[in-house]
Amino acid sequence: MAKSDYEKLLKRIESNLSDDKKGSASRFELPPVDVMWEGQKTFLRNFAEFPKVLRRDPDKILQYLSKEFAVPAERIGDKAMFIGKRDPDDFTRLFQIYVKDYLECPTCKSPDTKVVKENRISFLICEACGAKSTLKGKYA
Ligand SMILES: [Zn+2]
Q1: Which of 19, 34, 38, 69 lies 20 to 30 angstroms, CA to CA, from 130?
Q2: CA–CA separation, 105 vs 96, rounded Å?
Q3: What are the φ/ψ torsions at residue 42 (nearest 5 degrees)?
């Protein structure tokens, strides 16, 4: 069994064991990325799952990935297409950074936040502690 699979398994067991998840600042659970290559293109087949889980604008998330990879990207149905070959790990890493920069409340680290625009400035409002913070970037 690969090490990462083993860790995943452990995590699953851990999360099954702890039924007092509510209230604790549990780490944000991202869906596993489903990547497919076709020639010199990379398809993120389950792209549509991420905006749902992250509760952010799909267009902004696509722009974010496109900018970080520095390649053009396009949405095709539920999929996203990127020019060039990308590893699933590249996507996972970027989504983790996205969660840190655009979801996590800087005060209490809760990912239960929403973005509110005031005078064209985006703020992060935390649904757990109520803190209001400015966003570091423009992809939310
Ligand atoms: Zn908070």
Answers
A1: 19
A2: 14
A3: -115, 130
User: Is residue 3 domain-resident?
Assistant: no
Cα–Cα distance, 56 to 8 (Å, whole number): 26
Higher pLDDT, 13 or 65: 65
Q: In terms of residue numbers, what domain contains 65?
A: 29-134
- Beta-strand relationship, 79-83 and 73-76: antiparallel
For the stretch 14-47, pLDDT in tens is: 665 544 444 444 567 899 999 999 999 999 999 9
Q: How far is the CA of 50 from the centre of ligand 1 (A)?
A: 21
CA–centroid distance, 28 to ligand 1, in Å, is: 14
